Structures are given as C-alpha cells and as structure tokens.
Amino acid sequence: MAAVSVYKFADCVTCHAWSPDLSMIALCPNNDEVHIYRRSEEEKWERIHVLQKHDQIVSGIDWSSRSNKIVTVSHDRNSYVWNQETTEWVPTLVILRLNRAALCVQWSPKENKFAVGSGAKTVCVCYYEQENNWWVSKLIRKKHDSSVTSVAWHPNNIFLATTSTDGKCRVFSTFIKGVDTREAGLGPSDSKFGEQIVQLDLSFCWAFGVKWSPSGNTLAYVGHNSMIYFVDDVGPSPLAQSVAFRDLPLRDVLYLSERVVIGVGFDCNPMVFVADESGLWGFLRFLGERKAAASSAKSGSQFSEAFGKLYGQSRYGISNDSVQPSRLHGGIHENCINCIVPLNRKVGSKVTRFSTSGLDGRVVIWDLQNQEDLLDYL
Fold first, then answer.
1. Which stretches make up the Anaphase-promoting complex subunit 4-like WD40 domain (predicted)?
2. More confident residue, 299 or 176
C-alpha cells in the first residue's frame, strides 16, 4: 500500500504541520491548543510541548521550513507566530484586525509574509515590523462575498490564490513595498497590493483547497459539488477544466508534480488525478485499498458505506502507537480527511511523500515510490 505509517494522536485532528527536519509534528486535537510531538528512536511519539495562547479551536497551523517558526490561527480571531528560544516556544503578537474567525494560514515561499483567510470575507497578509517586535497585516477587503476557506502562495511570493464559500477562486497581488522586490517574470510589473488578477466562477457551491503547481503555471481547487477544477494560464484569459466524480466532495488538494494531484475529503480515501500528454485531466484511482474492494458492491451497500463515512462511524480506540493498515476495517482513515501536507517542501520540486490528517484523529504518511502506475506521471 501507499500508506507507510499510521499514527493515532487524538479523537480528532483539526490540522497539522511538520518541522523542517520532519522529526516533530505540530497538530491541533480539535481544541484551543497546539501539541508538538517528537519521534523517538523506537518510532514512538512523545508530546514535548503544548502551545496555549488561543481561546477557541485552532483552525490553521504552518511550520516554516527555513526559519523554523510556527504560525497558528484560531476561531478566536487571533494569530501568533511562535519562535523557539532554548527549550520553550515564545509567541509573538500578530495584528490581524478581524471581527470574525481566522480559518486558514500559509507561509509565503520566502517566509517573509504569511496569509490568513477569515470568516470576515477578508484576507490578511502579514509581515514583520522589527521596530515594534510584532507582525502587522495589510487587508484585502471587499473582494470576497463570503468566508475565505483556503489560501495558496504562488512560487513567485507575490501572487496569492484564495477560495471562498461564495463559490469563487481568486488570485491577488500581494506586493508590499519594503518587503518584496520587483523581479523579472513575476507577472504585471505595475500590480499593486490587493489588485485582483483573475476571478474564476467555475463552481456554483462552496470552494475549498486551492493549490498551485510546482511551476506556478496551473492551479487546482475543489467544489462542494464533487468536482475539481484545473486552471492553466492564470490571467486575463485562463484555460479551465472541470472534472466531476461520483464520490463524496473533497476538502483539500496537493500537487505532487505538474501532472499529478492528490485530493482528500469526505470519502476518507485520497484520490489521484493525473493529466495526459495533451494536458487533459482525469481521475485515476484511490490510493487506499478500501475503495477498490467496495467498487464491486451493490449500490445499496455503497450508499450505506457513504452514509456511514459521512457521519464518521469510527470503531477504533485511541493509541499513540503506530497502527498497522491490516488491522483497519478496509481502509486507513475512518472519517473526513481535512488536511494534506507535503513532506518535501522545496519550491518547484516534485513530491513523493505526504501526510494526511482527519477527523478520526489519525495522521497517515503516504509514499508513492512503490506505486508503479504513478511513476510515469511524477
């Protein structure tokens, strides 16, 4: 199987992120805390830190790969940047100026900024002010008609893609004078902060999980109508493809290469989408074995299985030990997968290992090196 390690950390995991050397993981166990675990030599996970500053559920975590900083956002409308000083993690205040929950967060490729999506129809682009020792934000306002569900940075560190529950995907310029520098090949040289580059009206329902391809030439996002959208030549005249599938909706996506995208969501099983030589995208298969076994079942049993997955009928106890896939009842995750994170975060590089977490409290590490049918696309 593609799943090489399965760990159970809590009843439910809201989001997770990895340290630069992959020796530690930060996750939210569906409360106002962030737990940091470190892997021991015996492949056991030991909880070494608990970050306590938020008052409500932590909705987003991102761990910078260069500066080793953790940024967290929460439904309490606050955000903190955590710096490790000796053995403790010290929070730095972030001025978000939000009146609704913060929903998602991501560091920019150069890690001099991060973006926060919120329920206030606003995107906060935050940068550090050395004089005051805090992070301040510039707001992209009056562009979204509903909550911003996900954000994704273009490799050029300037363009930012967002999705919203108004069904639209948008791309903005986030150029900040004094923080960013003009470089060749970054698109419109006269683009200002908050300028909308493109608005995509492909979905007529909630939109989630936008991501850029490693080159930045293509982006993908998903709708709550069991569809995934691929957009080439993002700009005034984009080229779009829509792929519909029969299963439950997705919540997040990840580009492994220019021709492979992994989608995760309510079906509890990662889905593989690939592009052929002509650039036409389509669904290939599920990564887990459970779906292949269920495909030959009768329609009534398929409905019952989907109904059970939707309501997350997990039948397994909590354990911090590694869980063998063979012990699970036909699959890895037992509830909605809400987060997918690459384990190789070099800008522009291909990804063969990634992790997923879900409402079942599991964190699963996937490795595609032994998946022969995918190697040609990677």
1. 17-107
2. 176
Write down the pLDDT at residue 14: 96
pTM of the model: 0.86
Q: What is the DSSP letter of 98?
A: -
Using one digit for the tens of pLDDT, what is the confidence trace for 164-188? Answer: 999 999 999 999 988 988 764 455 5
Calpha distance 272→169 (Å, rounded): 22
pLDDT band at 242 (very low <50, low <70, confident <90, very high): very high
Confidence of residue 331 (pLDDT cuts 50, 70, 90): low
Tokens 């020792």 correspond to 133
CA distances from 334 to 316, 363, 377 (A): 9, 11, 28
Closest by alpha carbon to 88, among 128, 35, 48? Answer: 48
Q: Taking a C-beta distance cutoff of 8 angstroms, is the pair 270, 286 a contact? A: yes
Q: In the chain, what's the furthest Cα-to-Cα distance?
A: 65
Give the residue-averaged pLDDT of 88-108.
Answer: 95
* The total number of residues written for the chain in this structure: 378
Helix, strand, coil distribution of the chain in percent, nearest 5? 5, 45, 50
Query: Is residue 161 a contact partner of residue 212, using CB atoms and an 8 Å limit?
Result: yes
Helix (H) or strand (E) holding 175: none
Name 231's bridge partners. 219, 240
Structural domains in the chain? 15-180+191-256 (2.130.10.10)
